[in-house]
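Researcher: Go.
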Amino acid sequence: MSEDIRKMINKVKNYKQFDPHKYNSFSKLIEQDLYDIAKWGLENDFSTNGAWDDANNIDDAIKNVIGGFKLLLKDKFPDGFNETPSNLKIYRFVVLKSANELNKNHLGYSWFTNPNRIKNPDFKQQMFHLKTTDLYLITAEIPQTKIDIPRSLFQRDMVWLENEIVLKDDTNIKVISLDKIY
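Model: Structure:
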């Protein structure tokens, strides 16, 4: 068996063994968790991560990613994940013709946690694709256990400005308000 085929088999095997949804708290992550999350992401969903830019191998890239994760875990919520509340407010832009169109059964996986970001012109530029006259802001509340911690760490590390948080599933979300922005 060639080395490439062996690596591919190990990659598939490792991917199936890793459960990104087993993590339920940012504060309970240990060094091994950070390593496992970084390795999983770099070998799978986040294989194009910028951590490879100045890395000579997977171990260097993992160290780069873990360094970014640690900064996020030190930075206070809502910009980082230090002191993330057990129940937190999250925000999402949606385009609707009217508020009655909101599908409350499936509200989406990608949200953000800092409402002050919408005042930042660079944040608005990142959301340029949402430029419309029918833009609404959903404010919701979720338990921290609903957060997809590995994907949230990667997304926040890769594009800090977006302040993204990713959910494990987009159902059973408590909507607090729906406000028309434009």
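Model: The radius of gyration is 18 Å.
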